[in-house]
Write a structure and sequence with these properties.
The chain has 276 residues and is α+β, with helices and mostly antiparallel strands. Helix content is 32%, strand content 16%. It contains nine helices and ten strands.
Length: 276
């Protein structure tokens, strides 16, 4: 009798674990209203706005993250939810870092243990704004929170949807991301650990995308074909052939990470014309 009861309880426990394993981690639940919202390059995701949403606001709306701080001349606070499906970075410049450390030494230890302590932190830290945001898939489509797309049609478990927009929009060929080291961006620690490959040479400023390593050859071939399209004058038939090649190459590829960030401000020429 005891053996039957024990086996029944064990089966029920295993059944419960199995049912929960495909669901979302608890600290992703507050993000569910954003699941279908588009990720906008250089702008934000739903009500999470780059350069506007503050650390205090987000910790109140989305409690229980894992918190890490990267300390230096410039400091960064990173929030991680759902085993890395969502990561957010809040940057402090050198003067802000100095002031926070002066007002409340050891703040990062307190905050990492108790995210709710943000209300007792210096205003500079509370008001730090969202600098970058990273999204990654779960183990499968069912365990992935983000089911939408970027503003150029990139989504998880959907293949790399390279549409004509990628070719026709000249702003997709950009260099500004090179001015930001990946280490400054949300989710950057995972890039080396997971050996993800960048697909950033043909996205608009404010968006980086990465694929998993099993797609390495496909990624290089896609990048090469797209770059050929962008770099040189092609006949209409050559352009059509390159588009077809890219779409055929990417049909089995999958996106591994999206990172949006505030683009570096454009340099302006302040020189004045002189009269001779």
């Amino acid at each position: 009798m005891h053996t039957i009861l024990k086996n029944t309880l064990l089966f029920a426990l295993l059944l419960g674990v199995s049912a929960c394993s495909g669901g979302l981690p608890k600290n992703l639940k507050s993000f569910e209203p954003l699941a279908q919202e588009p990720v906008m390059a250089g702008v934000g995701w739903g009500d999470l706005m780059l350069g506007e949403s503050t650390l205090s606001e987000i910790l109140k709306s989305h409690p229980s993250p894992k918190i890490a701080a990267i300390l230096g001349d410039d400091s960064t606070v990173e929030l991680t939810y759902g085993n890395g499906q969502i990561q957010m970075n809040f940057a402090l410049d050198q003067q802000q870092s100095y002031e926070v450390n002066k007002q409340q030494p050891g703040w990062y230890k307190t905050l990492s243990v108790d995210p709710g302590s943000i209300s007792q932190m210096p205003d500079i830290l509370q008001d730090a704004t969202l600098h970058s945001l990273s999204l990654a898939p779960g183990h499968n489509a069912d365990s992935t929170l983000f089911k939408g797309q970027s503003d150029h049609g990139l989504g998880f478990w959907q293949g790399l949807q390279i549409t004509d927009t990628f070719f026709e929009d000249n702003s997709l060929n950009f260099e500004s991301s090179c001015c930001l080291y990946p280490g400054q961006l949300a989710g950057s620690q995972a890039l080396d650990r997971q050996k993800l490959l960048p697909l950033n040479t043909w996205f608009k400023p404010g968006l980086l995308a990465y694929t998993a390593p099993e797609n390495a050859e496909t990624v290089r071939a896609v990048e090469s074909a797209v770059q050929k399209y962008i770099d040189s004058a092609q006949s209409a038939s050559d352009q059509a052939a390159l588009k077809a090649e890219v779409k055929a190459l990417q049909k089995d590829s999958h996106l591994a990470r999206l990172i949006i960030f505030e683009p570096a401000p454009a340099e302006t020429d302040t020189s004045e014309d002189t009269l001779e």
